[in-house]
């Protein structure tokens, strides 16, 4: 069988030392924790099938422009790489092309940074045409200004992390060719965006509610989607187990049908090129009527992960959307962790594997998406309005009152105005003085 550029043979297995530089600027960031960030880098490396042989941390006021971690620390790293028999150094922060080139020549190993590692994982996860286009666009946009620093990187091990997706042949061509490729990918992505936008418009016209599942990677979004809708989606306890968005229908007890969409997981320092390339996909959250923020409540870094998700949603313009926060994985929590979880307001504590918890979540969705019950007086001969009432709401009671019908309805929040608009078109003089033929003053 012909070996593709991204296959890794046993001789080419990545064996890495992970390196983190903690600067004063990073320490000032509210969502940054150096130990957690390095631990997360280990998980990212393992997700990319890298054997992690050791770690190194350097504290400096700011990054060294030439060696990133400083010449002295680079010498220590060289000795550690030789001692461990490592062939790769993975940095927890983003490197410039010059820094990659200098470190590569000095250390004589492949140099990868956090951004490139995440992009590489995405390249391995993308399955749909849209996902593949988005990942390649993000990789090329990231690598274009760094080409001079990746010469050996692309040929050192004949594949492996940092070269999946576009592959070596594309990255070794000149900048003009890569710019042409980026332009072509953007054109293809625009077509995909138009197609996705068309689907969104169709869903809006049908009045179907859209609910987006968002959250930090590995929070359990895909598991929740599968448990709620019996969707055939890939579920695994790993970072970025699913990449391409999946939408499935869910019928609520009232008969209201909604569409649940599982979006790509967020992560600390999510590469800007990736956010830009995946904007069309991430905008599912922006277009949704309701956001389900799924949180891994069993992790000690829950607060930081929640803040990261808030930051990405704000960047997408979806921060002000109606939201229910779902504290997932409570079956894995300690009693102390459970006590810290909020219960008042739009918060739920669940395990995606408990039927009773899923039932409570479905009830919360229905309560949020369906309005309070309202009473409408409708002329009995207005079959179109009566039909609309049954279509957009759940009729709780109805009775005849002379030539009119009285309906007590739990009305779809998104659609209830339609009933009032249609009733307003009729002559209000038919109603007795002071009586509103549309929505009455009774709200239950």
TrEMBL record:
<dbReference type="Pfam" id="PF16360">
    <property type="entry name" value="GTP-bdg_M"/>
</dbReference>
<feature type="binding site">
    <location>
        <position position="222"/>
    </location>
    <ligand>
        <name>Mg(2+)</name>
    </ligand>
</feature>
<feature type="binding site">
    <location>
        <begin position="328"/>
        <end position="331"/>
    </location>
    <ligand>
        <name>GTP</name>
    </ligand>
</feature>
<feature type="binding site">
    <location>
        <begin position="262"/>
        <end position="265"/>
    </location>
    <ligand>
        <name>GTP</name>
    </ligand>
</feature>
<dbReference type="GO" id="GO:0043022">
    <property type="term" value="F:ribosome binding"/>
</dbReference>
<keyword id="KW-0460">Magnesium</keyword>
<dbReference type="GO" id="GO:0046872">
    <property type="term" value="F:metal ion binding"/>
</dbReference>
<comment type="subunit">
    <text>Monomer. Associates with the 50S ribosomal subunit.</text>
</comment>
<keyword id="KW-0547">Nucleotide-binding</keyword>
<comment type="function">
    <text>GTPase that associates with the 50S ribosomal subunit and may have a role during protein synthesis or ribosome biogenesis.</text>
</comment>
<dbReference type="GO" id="GO:0005525">
    <property type="term" value="F:GTP binding"/>
</dbReference>
<dbReference type="InterPro" id="IPR042108">
    <property type="entry name" value="GTPase_HflX_N_sf"/>
</dbReference>
<comment type="similarity">
    <text>Belongs to the TRAFAC class OBG-HflX-like GTPase superfamily. HflX GTPase family.</text>
</comment>
<feature type="binding site">
    <location>
        <begin position="351"/>
        <end position="353"/>
    </location>
    <ligand>
        <name>GTP</name>
    </ligand>
</feature>
<dbReference type="InterPro" id="IPR025121">
    <property type="entry name" value="GTPase_HflX_N"/>
</dbReference>
<dbReference type="Pfam" id="PF01926">
    <property type="entry name" value="MMR_HSR1"/>
</dbReference>
<dbReference type="InterPro" id="IPR016496">
    <property type="entry name" value="GTPase_HflX"/>
</dbReference>
<dbReference type="InterPro" id="IPR006073">
    <property type="entry name" value="GTP-bd"/>
</dbReference>
<protein>
    <recommendedName>
        <fullName>GTPase HflX</fullName>
    </recommendedName>
</protein>
<keyword id="KW-0963">Cytoplasm</keyword>
<dbReference type="GO" id="GO:0005737">
    <property type="term" value="C:cytoplasm"/>
</dbReference>
<keyword id="KW-0342">GTP-binding</keyword>
<feature type="binding site">
    <location>
        <position position="242"/>
    </location>
    <ligand>
        <name>Mg(2+)</name>
    </ligand>
</feature>
<keyword id="KW-0175">Coiled coil</keyword>
<dbReference type="InterPro" id="IPR030394">
    <property type="entry name" value="G_HFLX_dom"/>
</dbReference>
<dbReference type="GO" id="GO:0003924">
    <property type="term" value="F:GTPase activity"/>
</dbReference>
<dbReference type="InterPro" id="IPR032305">
    <property type="entry name" value="GTP-bd_M"/>
</dbReference>
<feature type="binding site">
    <location>
        <begin position="215"/>
        <end position="222"/>
    </location>
    <ligand>
        <name>GTP</name>
    </ligand>
</feature>
<keyword id="KW-0479">Metal-binding</keyword>
<feature type="binding site">
    <location>
        <begin position="240"/>
        <end position="244"/>
    </location>
    <ligand>
        <name>GTP</name>
    </ligand>
</feature>
<feature type="domain" description="Hflx-type G">
    <location>
        <begin position="209"/>
        <end position="373"/>
    </location>
</feature>
<feature type="coiled-coil region">
    <location>
        <begin position="168"/>
        <end position="195"/>
    </location>
</feature>
<dbReference type="Pfam" id="PF13167">
    <property type="entry name" value="GTP-bdg_N"/>
</dbReference>
<dbReference type="InterPro" id="IPR027417">
    <property type="entry name" value="P-loop_NTPase"/>
</dbReference>
């Amino acid at each position: 069988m012909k070996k593709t550029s991204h296959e890794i043979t046993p001789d080419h297995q990545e064996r890495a030392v992970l390196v983190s530089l903690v600067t004063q600027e990073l320490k000032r960031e509210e969502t940054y924790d150096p130990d957690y960030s390095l631990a997360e880098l280990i998980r990212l490396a393992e997700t990319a099938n890298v054997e992690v042989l050791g770690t190194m941390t350097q504290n400096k006021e700011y990054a060294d422009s030439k060696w990133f971690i400083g010449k002295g620390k680079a010498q220590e790293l060289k000795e550690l790489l030789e001692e461990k028999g490592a062939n790769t150094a993975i940095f927890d922060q983003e490197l410039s092309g010059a820094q990659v080139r200098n470190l590569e020549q000095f250390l004589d190993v492949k140099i990868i940074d956090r951004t490139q590692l995440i992009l590489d994982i995405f390249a391995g996860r993308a399955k749909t045409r849209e996902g593949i286009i988005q990942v390649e666009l993000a990789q090329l946009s990231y690598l274009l200004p760094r080409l001079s620093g990746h010469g050996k990187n692309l040929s050192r091990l004949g594949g492996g992390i940092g070269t999946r997706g576009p592959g070596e042949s594309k990255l070794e061509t000149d900048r003009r060719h890569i710019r042409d490729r980026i332009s072509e990918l953007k054109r293809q992505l625009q077509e995909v965006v138009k197609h996705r936008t068309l689907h969104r418009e169709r869903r809006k016209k049908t009045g179907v509610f859209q609910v987006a599942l968002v959250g930090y990677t590995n929070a359990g979004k895909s598991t929740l989607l599968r448990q709620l809708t019996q969707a055939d989606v890939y579920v695994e306890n790993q970072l970025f187990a699913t990449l391409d968005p999946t939408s499935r229908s869910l019928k609520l007890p009232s008969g209201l049908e909604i569409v649940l969409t599982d979006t790509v997981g967020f992560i600390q320092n999510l590469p800007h090129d990736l956010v830009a390339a995946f904007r069309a996909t991430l905008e599912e959250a922006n277009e949704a009527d309701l956001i389900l923020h799924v949180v891994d409540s069993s992790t000690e870094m829950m607060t930081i992960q929640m803040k990261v998700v808030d930051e990405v949603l704000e960047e997408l313009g979806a921060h002000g959307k109606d939201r229910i926060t779902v504290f997932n994985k409570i079956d894995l929590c300690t009693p102390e962790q459970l006590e810290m979880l909020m219960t008042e307001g739009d918060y739920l504590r669940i395990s995606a594997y408990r039927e009773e918890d899923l039932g409570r979540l479905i009830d919360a969705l229905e309560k949020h998406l369906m309005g309070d019950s309202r009473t409408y007086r409708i002329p009995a001969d207005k079959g179109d309005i009566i039909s609309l009432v049954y279509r957009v709401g759940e009729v709780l009671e109805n009775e005849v009152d002379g030539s009119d019908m009285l309906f007590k309805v739990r009305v779809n929040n998104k659609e209830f105005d339609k009933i009032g608009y249609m009733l307003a078109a009729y002559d209000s003089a038919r109603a007795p003085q002071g009586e509103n033929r549309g929505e009455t003053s009774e709200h239950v």
